[in-house]
Amino acid sequence: MSSESIEYWGADEQRSSFIVVTETSKRGVRCVSVAWERQGRGITVSYDHTDPDASDPREALNALAPDVAFLPLEEDDAKTALKRAVVMSRIASRAVPTWLFEEKALLGELRAASVDDGPVYSCGGCGEGLDSGRALRIARAPGRLPLLRTCASCGDAASVDDDHLTRGWLSVYAREPRRAMVHAALAERARARRPDVQALRGASLLMLANPIQGAHCLREAVACDPRCAEWRLFYAQALVHCGLYASACAELQEVGVARQRYANVASSLATLLKRSLDTSALDNIERERGMLSALVAMNSGDTRGANTLVQALSSTPGDADAVRELWRTVMSRYANASSALDDRITTGFSALHAT
Questions:
Q1: Structurally, what CATH architecture does the domain formed by 193-354 represent?
Q2: Which of 8, 17, 264, 304 is deepest in the core (most CB within 10 A)?
Q3: pLDDT tens digits, one per residue of 181-218
């Protein structure tokens, strides 16, 4: 056993898949194991173990999992499957063990895993990859759909067209906002509905730490489809990061109306935000909403235009001081958003996305 060899092994159970990479050397057989739920939480187990007494990979595999029937895999197939597992984990908001990213020689470039690498989820019947539409349904409803989804051939007829919008939203849920922006541009070029494109673009910009432009896009989308709770949720989140707390509270209330299961969490989050506001701020929701246009102008470098838009929010000359004070407050919140946002607010939005 003087030479070193690497082999790839796989096994599928009803709900989970396994990949084990065996590295045979003079020191024994090293087994790097990864297990994941094919349509659920992504990676559930990762394990690095060396069996110094084993002289053959199958011997080590039998000691590792005696009840699992492992079959040899091609290297490319194994690495592709591992990339899918990483994407599933990101969609499910589960951290991927960082040591897996360091094993590039054995596992491939997992950090670069993307929804565009191939089907994210596989059919619970035939094992074929599910199209992007079915994958998006799983991503949007973690834990609420049956664990095993099937393809059209195996009985699940409902689907969403496999287009750039679908892949874009999958990229958002997989925390790949730059890739989502590319799909938004391609969807626009393919003449998709503008509100759909703007919603995808807005959610992507929010994740790219540009909440002002993100809120601007999402406002347009929500205006065209006010009952879309998902868009309103991203819009409310962008407004918070812009410092427009009163407007965000109003949007959260609408989120609860549009999607009843969001109601309790959205109401609690709105109450938490209101604690950061004085009573008069809640009477200034329309003014605060109007300030988004001023923030967009400021973000684009048009300071004079921003000031003009702020001044236009005064309904009477006597209101000018109040409007300027509100603007200063909003600007202060926006400038400190990344550091000053309460952990409970961030956690609240995460809970809403997972509801």
A1: Alpha Horseshoe (1.25)
A2: 8
A3: 999 999 998 888 899 999 999 999 999 999 999 999 99
Q: Report yes or no: 198 and 188 within 8 Å, Cβ to Cβ.
A: no
Q: CA nearest 38: which of 114, 138, 131, 107?
A: 138
Strand partners of residue 6: 23
CA proximity to 121, closest of 25, 37, 233:
37
Looking at the chain, list the stretches that DSSP marks H as alpha helix, in order from N- to C-terminal side.
57-64, 75-91, 98-102, 104-107, 132-140, 164-173, 177-189, 194-207, 211-224, 229-242, 245-258, 263-274, 285-299, 303-311, 320-335, 337-340, 343-354
Q: How many CA atoms lie within 13 A of 113 on its CB side?
A: 26
Residue in this structure with the two tokens 């001044």, named with its chain if needed = 311
Which residues does residue 24 pair with via DSSP β-bridges, in sequence order? 5, 29
H or E element in which residue 6 lies: strand 5-12
What the block records as the tokens of 265 is 């969490």
Closest CA to 171 of 91, 64, 283: 91
Nearest Cα to Cα of residue 174 among 78, 77, 236, 85? 85
Q: Locate tokens 């799909």: which residue? A: 183
The H or E element spanning position 22 is strand 16-25
* Torsion sign (Cα): 334, 289, 193, 300: negative
Domain boundaries, the chain: 5-113, 115-192, 193-354
pLDDT in tens, 84-107: 999 999 988 888 999 999 999 999
For residue 110, the one-letter residue type is: L
Which residues have CB under 8 Å from 105's CB, separation 6+?
none
Nearest to 250 by CA among 240, 260, 261: 240
